[in-house]
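Supplementary Note 3. Input sequence used for the single-chain structure prediction.
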Amino acid sequence: MPVVHQKNGTTYSIRLLPLGGYNLFSRPPEEDEEGEDATPFAPPPRKTVLFPLAVGGRKFEEATAWQRFFVTLCGALMNFVLGIAVLLVLVLSQGRTGSTTVADFGENSQSAAVLQRGDTILQIDGKPCWTVYTLSGAFDGTEKTHTMKVLRGGEVVSLPAVTVAPTLDENGNVLYGTDFRVASQRMSAKNAAALTGEMFRYYSGAILGGFWELFTGKAGVEELSGPIGTVSAVSQAVRYGWRDALSLMALLTINVGIFNLLPIPALDGCKLLFLLWEALTGHPVPERAQGFVNTAGMVALLWLMLLVTMQDISRFL
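The predicted structure, written as discrete structure tokens, is reproduced below.
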């Protein structure tokens, strides 16, 4: 049974499989055969509001362009809300997390010539270092010299040349991207919020980067996965553990939100462009034009879905 909560005429629910988000519009009762309403309904008078936050007492199609724009946008944004909630659960489940404070150095560490134990790294190459994720993301596993700002003894110190080398194993493989270690810290509300935001930024950036590579031709359609491939990935994540399953769930949910906001015909991104045009000009895009664009987009999406599904099947044969 879904978890349901009602407030101000809107029903909020969490379904059995909380993957993705959407808005479902209820309609006022239609007239019966005698011409009378099955349930008495008197829509309130329209009010001219530039950015209204509700569509109350009338059909969705009768709402203003800004109202329809906002409601359509919120349907897609619910994917991000769910994704952030899942990432927050993952972060809170860690109990402790890495900090940006230097705790120790590896053998023959080059960074030890400049850095000191207890230094809290604030910036690397001019970019703020908020969490252990931004810290690790600043190093690519090769020996490089960086500029840093650290908090040392209560004072901000600029370090113009800090050479950081990776830590290698006995076979020369990279174990860590740095030759220093950071201290762990207990999870706090501030750390949890920062880590959740950083993970959301990382996931979103990776997804947008994938779409960009697909659009520019750097990645091919053969690298996409359809429903069968997604189910296979989910089943594998479940076998690895609940944390991997939640991580994949967050990735898929954020992916759905971003994909739905792309200006592709038949998706919410294209609908938002139509509604924005109507809101700014006062004239809707002709229904014939909207129908043609959305139909063409739907055909293209169905063709793409069929293509990636056939690819998924061929991978398992």
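Residues 141 and 177 are 4 Å apart (CA to CA). The first strand starts at residue 3 and ends at 7.
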